[in-house]
Design a protein that fits this description.
With about 1650 residues, the protein is an alpha+beta fold. It contains 67 helices and 39 strands. The strands form 9 sheets. It has a 7-stranded mixed β-sheet, with helices on both faces. Strand 30 (about 1000-1005), helix 36 and strand 31 form a beta-alpha-beta unit. Helix 12 runs antiparallel to helix 13, helix 55 runs antiparallel to helix 56 and helix 64 runs parallel beside helix 67 (about 1620-1630). About 45% of the residues are buried.
Amino acid sequence: MTTFELELERDKAEKINEVAERGAALARELGYDAESVQTFLRHYFRHVDALDVAERSVDDLLGMVRSHYRLAENRPAARATIAIRTPSQSDDGWTCGGATVVQIVTDDRPFLVDSVTMEVLRQGWSIREVFHPQFLVDRDLSGALHGILTAEQAASGAPRRGSTDQPVNVVAESWMHLEITPPSGQGHPERLTDALEQGLREVLQLVGDAVEAWAKMQQRAGETVALLTYGELPAGRRAEAEVSAELLSWLTDSHFTFLGYREYRYQAADAEAGTPASYVAVPATGLGILRGDADEASTFHALPRDDHPLLLAITKDSYKSRVHRPSYLDYLGIRLFDTAGNVIGERRFLGLFASTAYSESVTRIPLLRQRAREVLRRSQYDESSHGGKAVMDVLETFPRDELFQSPIAELAPTIEKVAHLKERRQVRLFVRRDPYGRYLSCIVYLPRDRYTTAVRNKMQDILLSGLGGSSIDFTARVTESVLARLHFVVGMPRGTAAGEVDVRALERELTQATRSWDDEFAELLSDVRNPDLLAERVRGLPEGYKEDYTPRQGIMDLTAIIDLAGPEDMAMAMYRPDRADDDADLRFKIFRWSQTLSLSTIMPHLSLLGVDVVDERPYELVFGEHKRGFVYDFGVVVPGGRAAVEKRWDTAAREQFMDAFAASYSGRSEPDRFNSLVMGADLGWRQVALLRAIGRYLRQTGSTYSQTYVAQSLTANVEIARLLVELFETKFNPELELSRADRAEEVEDIRDKIKLALDSVASLDHDKIIRSYLGIIDAVIRTSFYQPGRDTVAFKLLPRKIADLPQPRPAYEIFVYSPRVEGVHLRFGAVARGGLRWSDRAEDFRTEVLGLVKAQMVKNTVIVPVGAKGGFYCKHLPDPSVDREAWFNEGKACYQLFIASLLDITDNIVDGEVVPPQHVIRYDSDDPYLVVAADKGTASFSDIANAISLEYGFWLGDAFASGGSAGYDHKGMGITARGAWVSVQRHFRELGIDPQTQDFTCVGIGDMSGDVFGNGMLRSEHTKLIAAFDHRHVLIDPNPDPVASFAERKRLSELGRSSWGDYDTSLISVGGGVFPRTLKSIGITPQMRKALGIAESVVELSPAELISACLRAPVDLLWNGGIGTYVKATAESHAQVGDKANDGLRVNGSEVRARAVGEGGNLGLTQLGRIEYALRGGRSGKGGRINTDFIDNSAGVDTSDHEVNIKILLTGEVNAGRLTMPDRDELLASMTDEVAELVLEHNYDQNLALANAVYQSASMAGVHEDWMERLVERGVLDRAIEFLPTSEEMAERRREHRGLTSPELCTLMSYTKIMLARDVLSSDLPDDPDLADRLVDYFPTPLRERYDDQIRGHRLSREIITTMLVNDFVNKAGNTTLYRLSSETGAGVADLIRANVAARTIFSAPELELELEGLDFQISAEVQTELRLEIRTLVERATRWLVNNRRRPIDISACVDFYAEPVADLAEVLPELLSGRDADAYSKALKGYLAKGVPEKLARRVATQPYLFAALTIVPTAAQMHVDADTVASVHFSLGQRLGLDRLLARIIELPRTDRWEIMARAALRDDLHAVQSDLTAEAMSIATSGSTKQRINLWEKETPGVPESIKTLRSICDGKPELAKTSVGLRVARGLLSRA
């Protein structure tokens, strides 16, 4: 026994001991004898193979035995108990690996195991395992089991049952346990098990009958021997009787298995009665399997055949034995004669010759010994001669059944002929006909080297066909002899006797069958190509292949392999089986060169194509040391069977199937349920791929149906599936030579057919899915499906045409599908930009991208393109933990496929003309602008995208993807962090902190290797970073040294791929440290508690808990530069956040105690989390300062946009040869700092705009509510999606004197810009020459100086101007100005912006704002905001006035030329022109500004703002009267003082403005009052054309009736609370003073 076997036996013993111990414990619980149970269990498994025990669990072994024992608990005497079932872990607590278990308990007898397993196999079951323990048991008369006995107990006299006096009844039993698997495709499992149980009971009964009658049958045999020896015999029968007696005596000596015995009376034929001769059973003589008194109708009788019948008839019965072994029963009939020699009866023994009868020498077997002597005598050879020895040698090896059964007259010549064959290479056939015509015995000799399975099969076919047989059995004998021997027994159909046989003709056919496969192959080479190569390659065919296939097939298969292009190539063949008995409907061959195929991988592909594999034959062909070919042959059955093959599987259909398989296996299509449409709907694999692609898009839109169910829906409605494909092809196939009108008409016809067919779709779900398909096809406007050589399919869609698509719905969408990658690109306009993300969300990457594009849409308001975003999902990534490089390379390859697919259906520009993509039918207008950028996972891919762009000849060249090696390095510039830091500075500015000069505390998310975090934490040397964390570590520095920690952070940043683990811990203050996040807990020091605001009772925290504490720390700044979402709203669940990795550490917005939040990274807080923080966060709990991520980190996209537009500008120069690419790249690099300045200016302006909006938030709440409603009405805004408060919530806030928070104002500002941009771009405003400077100012100075003309011809000039105008307008005028002014004036966007541009120039607003900007950290932020709003108010009033009083469209240049200089002059002298209350008010304002630190010059200018508005009427009045504006101004303001119009204006200003109507009324009153005052001034000037101001007013007063009364009335009106009615009356009173009133 080997060491391995010893170990197995040891393991077996250990496991059986464990089973025994478990069984004993269970026995003790149930009150049984534990020791007996252990003994029983060990005996049960004693003879079980050790390996089989090792593979099973203790529970399974114990369950098996428990089940068997329960079966044995009650067994009636002499009866077997049988149980058949398939145990399962869930139902039974044990299993046999899914096998069906047969358990039998019966009396111990011979032949049991053989007979039982024979029956199982006969019924088609397969046997996996057989256990056969034998037990001595104690049973009572009722069959109840009382115990298992040991051999010693059973042999100990008369043992008693337990403590009773009852004697033990010892029974020897066989317990059989079989594990079997059912036959495939044979019916219902219950019917199979019922039939098996019935068969087993029959077999056990037969075994019992045979064993019980064994002694009696032996006795009958002895009696028969005596009868033959001593009984009376007819004359001449004595010698025959002696031989028969000797044989029967020999057989009874364990050389024959007696199974049945019966005696018969012979009844001769009666010619007159017409009855044939027969044997009639003698009653009460049957034993064993013949124990009955009557024969079945089909029972065989060896009736006498001639006048001198043999005394002993030896033949085969017509039935196979069901006991011991499955051979035809041997029939021994000893005939009885009367004295006249007539047959009068028969003693019949049925059984099986023992093995000795076949292996013992013929010289030692009675009867055969005599026959051998007779054969030798007839041969006339001496026994010692060479011929005699040859005869004897043949006799010894001749089929033994033939020796027993053949008449000597047939046997002798056959033996002699066989002996004469010697070693000659020839085929000889010897045929013996059964005397009763039931079968033909055919013995074939053939050259040994020609004997193969294929040859034998051919011979069987020849013999069956030539002899008309119904069955055939064979045995083979192959020795070192030149000749091999086959013995065939050909059974004839029941009722049909074998006829005459043309032996020589059959022999010729058999000879042909033995011809060499190679011989036939060589003959066929004369008519094929490459005969020499085929002759060489045939040597590589294995013999197994030759046995299975004809030489003609071999030539075809080898030719297929030779024609393969290489290892990746694959050839196929599909054909009907050559053999009639083949179970397959079709055979499917695959040919490969060098590379094997995995059979387990192939099977699913075939199954999903709708066929089942019933057999498989793989062959390896070795052509040389390094040359191999492979043939894989599969037998497949198809739905509908061979009838379907005849009807549907023609050559074209088979080619379609093979193409589909090749595509599926090679990865060009996916192996899924859609593939059943190939044959189910007669679609090609690419047509199926089209339907699959639409199904994949349907999944991404949020459909709840699985892809399997979608495929089933199409499979259940194949006609509609075909129509959907036809609809798509008709709409998009460019090869269909159809006019646009004809194509549209045919498309509509097919749509009508689909809608009509839908009426007959029974399933509501199927109907919904098909309608979704129809809707998606309708929404597709371009596709790459018909472009040759593409590995992907791209659809360009109009999402707003697809029902039930999640909001928001972009303007355009491209969906890319392939088996390797899927992706989506969403655009909210024709000119759009956004990054492409490597997504890890297979099921909903579109949802991920949609969420990102919403943020991108609002972020892109600062740049020319609107929002866009893309994402792709790699479907077959290697495991990065095993091979990260392979993982990365696959992601990069998928990115390349995705990029190429986007470009496949995008228009190009060549020589200034738009060129559509080839093989694409377009249903939209020109659309050449496609720009992408980096995002998560694609930071290093920009050069890859640009390389593809250049390869495609795309007009944008390397401007296609920003951030490449020839672009602006965002990390190197630190631009994203710098932009976000502008927001931080603004927050701190509002808090009175200068982060560049004052120390401040900070908690950070990220590490120094990251772009945003690293660059952000290097923006100020005064940053006291007390805590930071990334996915690896937590850094805690409770009291950092700002200078030292800054230097260390800088060092880490310069390392490149650093982590907090690289931080020099010696620089960390007491109580801090760097802690890996893998730690179970972290001790909390007193210093940590103080710095992070942790409760005194806390002594340790897990890393996640510590990070949560960091997020809640009472610091000045929370800086997010990492990846993940760490802050949510209290009302939000972690699942809603969608960042499972950070669920354990995320905090609520109200818990964040930082005074301000800077969002350099995306999605660090949810929008609701920001709002909650802005309302209830911060150190005071009354709200912290925060914007949104898309505001804070917009500098990155702004930089990329500048890069793209600069490259577009310079592309023309490069193409014209006026600028080389190296020079262009150098120029780009030289402008880096100025581009950054331009970008950061946008960040600064947006933050100022937000500061203004927050300052006015409460007072403007009503206006904000109205504006949001207006945006909703226009379809621009969805308040719910953007988390903006409802109207009810806004009303509640207004009651609490609160308005929108800063994050909400960020969103509102972005949507304001989005709407304005749409309106401006669709107007003529971008074409106004007065605004061309906006285009030029967009670009850096070197470009303005060198390429002014080219800038003005920029392809995106209108978009750039629009972006500049909209951003400048909203940033300076505010979110609602346009809405309010348009409502008040009825003017459109273009007119209002023209007026605003003119007004800002006239009143020098840019210069004043620049002066204010220079006062950062010199005066308070609040004062700055007040000053900005004063300037803005004047500009807004001027805008309104210009729109209402100047001819539209306003000529900006003319307007500015007319007003600017006089207004500037007037502003200088205005303080001296004011008098009375105006002078007092001005003086008061001036002193207030000066007291707040405003420089005097600026303070004087801002203090005059309320009065400077009058210049809009003063200047034209002066011009009209040809006087100085100063003179008119003096009269204007003095007249106002005289009449008290300044008091009335003050009352109008004090009117409430809680909604737009009040605001409009207030503005109208102000404008009307100004107009009245202007007109009164003009009248006063016209009445008194000279004199001082006082003189002019006095003269006007004398000439104007009712002035004193009006003054009195106005004074009365201005007293008390301001009311709209009173101010309206006051205005009417003032107007009444006009002469024309």
